[in-house]
Amino acid sequence: MVRGSISAMEDNMMISRMMLSACNLAAMLPGGVSCFRKRMHEYEEFSKKKDKMKASVAAMKKEIDRFAEKEKAWVMKKKAFLEEKEGLKDSLAQVTSDNQWLIEHGFQQVVTYLIHSAEFNSTLGDVYTKLLNHGKHLGFIACYKAYESGQSQDQSSFYQPQALVTFK
Question: What digits encode the pLDDT tens for the residues 111-135?
Answer without folding.
Answer: 888 888 888 888 888 888 888 777 7
